[in-house]
Design goal:
The chain is of the alpha+beta class. The strands form 3 sheets. Strands 6, 8, 9, 10, 11, 12, 13, 14, 16 and 17 form a 10-stranded mixed beta sheet that branches.
Length: 645
Amino acid sequence: DGFAIRHFKIVEGEGLAVGARSPRPTRHGGHPLILGRAAADDLDKEVGDTLRLYESTYRIVGIYETGAPLEDSAGVVLLSDAQALAGHPRQVNAYLLKLRDIKDAERVRQRIERHFDFTVTTSSDFASKQEAIAYIQGFTWAISLLAVVIGGVGVMNTMLMSICERTREFGALRAVGWRRRQVLGLVLKESLTLTGLGGLMGIGLGVAVVRAVEHVPAVSGFLSSTFSPILFAQAIGVALALGLVGGAYPAWRASRLMPAEAMRSEGGARGARGARASLAPTSGMTVRSLLRQPTRTLLTTIGIGIAIMAMVSLGALADGLVAEIASVAGGGVQLVGIQADASIDLSTIDVGVVNHIAALPGVQHAEGFLTGYATIGDAPFFVVFGYQPHGQGIRDFRIVEGKPLTANRQIIIGSVAADNLGKRVGQTLRILDVPFRIVGIYETGVPFEEGGGVVSLHDAQALFGQPHKVSFLGIWLDDPNQAETVRRQIEARFPEVAVSQASDFADDVVDLKLTRASTWAIAFLALLVGGAGMTNTMVMSVFERTREIGVLRALGWRRGRVLWMILRESLALSLLGGVAGLVAGIAVGEMLSVIPLMTGFVQAHFSIGLFLQALGTALVLGAVGGVYPAWRASRMRPVEALRYE
C-alpha cells in the first residue's frame, strides 16, 4: 500500500495488499505475487496460478501493466518476501522519498548526505548516476568506435582507389581550368555523399535489428529501445565526420595531380608491364602486386588488423575470466557444485544440503563457500570470499605477509587489493559499514582472487544476508576416478544443485557462456566490416589490372591460374593484417589488464589456440573476401580485357 507501487495498474485480479490480506487460499497456496502482463504472456500464467521462485511458491493474485517493458516483464512480491528471497533481511536497495514541496529537493538532499553515507538524486537524474549504466554506455561507445574506425579506413581506401581509377579524369578537369580547391571539393562531396548514404542505411538497419531483438522473449523484458532525434543526428554526424576524415587525404592527393602527368596515367589499365611482373616467380609476384599500391595495402591491412585485434583482445579477456572463475575449483577439489539454473551472482545452496552431500558414499569431504561484491573507495568491484578458516578450500590462499585467517571479524586481502586500497596488516577495512581487521595479505596467482579479500564463512553470511547459505561447494572424493559416477548420484538426489567436474566447471556456468557469446558477436561485427573492406580492395585491384589480366589470358593462362593469383594476393594481404592484429591484440589486452577498473578483476589470458583461431579467421576472411574478385578476374575474356581503357 506504499506510494511506490501505485503506478502498477491492476488489469486482472487484485492488488498485492488485498491479496496479502485475502483469507481465500488458491489451488496451491503460497505467498502473494502480482505479475506483469508481458511476463504472464511469456510464462502462460493467469490469476490463481502458482509460480516457483528458487525454493518458494508464490500465488498470482493479480496481473498489472505499467507501460515500462522492464516492469511489465517482472513480478512484485511483498518486501518481506523479497528480503527473504534475496537473503537480505531488513535491507533494501534504495529509498524513495516523496516531498511535500519539490522546491525543497536540494535542501533535503544535502541534509541526508550530511547525516548518512547515501547518494541522493532526483528521480530524473537517478539513471545517469548509476555506475553500471555508465559502464554500459562506455562499452557501447567503445564498440561503436571500433566499427567506425574500421569503416573510416574503408572509406579512405575506397576514395584512394577512386582517385587512382579516375586519374585521367582529374587531369582533364585540371587541363580545362579547374582549380585545386574545386577538385578537392569534388572528392570531398563524393566522400560525404557516400558516408551519408551509409549512415542512413545504418540507421535503418540499426532500427530493424533492435526491433527484431525486442521480440525475442529472452531479452524483451529488459531491453527497451528509445530512438530519439538526437541519436539519429549523432549517427549522421559521425557518418559525415567519417566521410570528411576518410576523404581528406584522397581529396588532397587528387588536388595535387599535375594535368600533364595525370593525362599520361594508365589509371586502371595496366598492360604488358603488369603482365611481365606477373610472370615472375610466385612469391615475388604476390609481393610486387601488393606493393604496387602501398597505401591501399596499408589501409586494408589496418582494417583487417583492427578486426583481428578486437577478436584477440576480447577473446583473451573472456578466456582470462573463464580461467579465474575456474580457480574456485582449486585445492585439489574434484567436483564443484552451484545452484541449478542460476547465475554465479544469485547462486545459493543450503548448508544442510552440503552436509548431506558430505555424508554420501565416495565423498571424502564437502565444503561450501560464499562470494559477494562490495564497493570500497575507488575499487568498484571488491570481491569478498567467505571460507571456513580451517577448511581445505582456503589453503590455496598463500599468506605472504601477516598470518592466516583464524577467527571472525578478521580479513586477509589479496596483494593487488592491498596495493589498490593502500592497506597493510593491522589496519581496518570497512565492508558495507562493518569493520574487519586485516591480519594477512595473500597471493594466489589469480587476479580475481588477489583483487579481493577473504573473511570467515560466518561473517560473509552475515555481511550479505545469507544465513546458512553458500554460493558454491567443493567436493573431494575418496577415488577421483569415480568423479562422474558421484556427480550423477548427487544431481539425482539433489536436483537443486548442478555439479560439474572441476575441469569442466567454468564451461558449464551460464554467465560465462553468455560472456563468450557476446565476445564473439562483437568480434564478428568487426570481422564483417573488415571483410567488406577486403572485398572492396580486391575488386578494385582486379578492376585496375584489367588489361594485365587480359595479357596473361592471351599468353595462355587458364582461368584457374588467374583465380589462384588473385586469391593468393587476398590471402597474403589478410595474413599480413592477421599478424598485425595479433600483435596489436596482445598489446591492447595487456593494457586493458592494468587499468584500475580491470586490475584485480580479470587478466587477459593468451593461448596458442586463440592465436591459431585469429590467424585462421584472417585467412578465411581473405579467402571469402577474395572469392568474388578472383572469380570475376578469371571470367574476363582476353580480347575485351585488352581493349579496356
